[in-house]
């Protein structure tokens, strides 16, 4: 190795402070102890660590499956209580904005910190301190991130977190199957954001969605299986499994449809089917491609207005042996949003008995969009407003998925701070 490079590297290492500060020790000990910690001991572990920095009245809130409430997780050392409505509450503000919220009281500060696993919104960590300074806030944000990671990891080993999010309402077997197969219902990166929601939350059966970000391509699928109950859930499961297998085999969009169609026909025969919309977005260029298998056309939102319906040639639903679909292409502008949905959203009836329809959906989207911050907030608010207009009734599965393309690059996140 060049002598100058060696001395430069050694000099940099000699200057680096590798000593362990208080905050690093606290987070490190929490992480070290959490590796083999049984899930039910996460609560007392978190409460104990927070007490070491002078915190008290610690609560861990988890988002319920309907995305309306923050439900307190019960555990030794944690403060319980009633669920908190997300909209209009200070814990809810932290959840929606993904930023800490300080609730100043006479002689103390109640902190509400979003629990973020990556950018998936898990819930909120709340605690009380006498005062909060800049160093406290930095430590608390990192602590909340570690707690979120622990919850997501331990969720694979226990039903406790899942049952808390159900808040006592039973989920159908079909819905259990669907939710087990779903990706996180929100994702945010510098280049693209995704948020989705399925209704009726505890009875959904045939609708499903999926997305992954592979390098610079976002792959998305929204499907709607015929029928209701377990049969619809099984149709959806096979279709989504075939979609993922074909996607991971790196086939083209048109061939992906044919692979899904063959798998459905092999298992169920010609009488069962799913409609579907499969999309690919290049997050660097903003080019969106899609195929339509009997599904409602997505919409493009620009500046809070619906400016385009992505009409395209369609083929038969998956399972019917349709013709090879046409791949359609559109160039998005930065900050465009694409709204995909299933027909249960627009074929439901309003309180008056009139069918809801796509124009009413467009009107609602354009009203709600300026009132929201980010795609996750938009999907939640849109779902609540649409359900209210339908008299809080969802007789068929209904799915919403919003993609926002922001463009640019994420390379700066891989550059270390020196």
From TrEMBL:
Coiled coil: none annotated. Signal peptide: none annotated. Residues 189-405 form the PPM-type phosphatase domain. Keywords: Hydrolase. The keyword DNA-binding does not apply. This is Phosphatase. Transmembrane segments: none annotated. Gene3D superfamilies: PPM-type phosphatase domain. One of its GO terms (molecular function) is phosphatase activity. It holds the Pfam family SpoIIE. InterPro entries: Bact_Sigma-Reg, PPM-type-like_dom_sf, PPM-type_phosphatase-like_dom. PANTHER family: STAGE II SPORULATION PROTEIN E (PTHR43156:SF2), STAGE II SPORULATION PROTEIN E-RELATED (PTHR43156).
């Amino acid at each position: 190795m060049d002598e100058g490079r060696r001395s430069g590297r050694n000099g940099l290492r000699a200057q680096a402070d590798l000593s362990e500060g208080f905050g690093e020790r606290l987070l490190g000990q929490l992480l070290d102890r959490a590796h083999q910690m049984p899930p039910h001991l996460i609560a007392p572990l978190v409460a104990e660590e927070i007490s070491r920095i002078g915190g008290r009245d610690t609560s861990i809130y988890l988002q319920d499956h309907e995305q309306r409430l923050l439900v307190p997780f019960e555990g030794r050392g944690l403060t319980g209580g009633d669920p908190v409505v997300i909209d209009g509450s200070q814990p809810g503000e932290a959840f929606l904005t993904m930023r800490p919220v300080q609730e100043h009281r006479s002689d103390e500060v109640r902190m509400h910190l979003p629990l973020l696993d990556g950018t998936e919104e898990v819930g909120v960590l709340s605690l009380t301190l006498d005062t909060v300074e800049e160093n406290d806030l930095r430590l608390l944000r990192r602590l909340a991130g570690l707690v979120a990671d622990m919850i997501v990891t331990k969720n694979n080993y226990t039903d406790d977190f899942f049952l808390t999010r159900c808040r006592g309402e039973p989920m159908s077997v079909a819905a259990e199957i669907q939710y087990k197969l779903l990706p996180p219902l929100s994702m945010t990166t510098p280049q693209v954001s995704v948020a989705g929601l399925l209704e009726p939350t505890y009875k959904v059966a045939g609708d499903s969605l999926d997305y992954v970000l592979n390098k610079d391509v976002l792959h998305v699928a929204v499907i709607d299986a015929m029928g209701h109950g377990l049969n619809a859930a099984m149709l959806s499961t096979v279709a989504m499994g075939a979609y993922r297998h074909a996607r991971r085999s790196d086939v083209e969009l048109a061939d992906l449809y044919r692979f899904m169609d063959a798998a459905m026909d092999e298992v169920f025969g010609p009488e069962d089917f799913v409609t579907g919309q499969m999309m690919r977005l290049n997050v660097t260029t903003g080019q969106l491609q899609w195929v339509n298998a009997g599904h409602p056309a997505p919409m493009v939102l620009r500046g809070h207005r619906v400016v385009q319906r992505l009409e395209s040639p369609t083929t038969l639903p998956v399972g019917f042996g349709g013709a090879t679909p046409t791949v359609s292409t559109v160039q998005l502008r930065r900050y465009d949003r694409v709204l995909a949905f299933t027909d249960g959203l627009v074929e439901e009836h309003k309180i008056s008995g009139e069918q809801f329809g796509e124009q009413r959906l467009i009107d609602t989207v354009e009203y709600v969009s300026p009132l929201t911050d980010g795609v996750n907030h938009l999907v939640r608010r849109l779902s609540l407003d649409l359900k209210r207009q339908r008299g809080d009734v969802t007789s068929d599965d209904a799915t919403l998925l919003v993609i926002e393309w922001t463009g640019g690059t994420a390379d700066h996140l891989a550059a270390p701070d020196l």
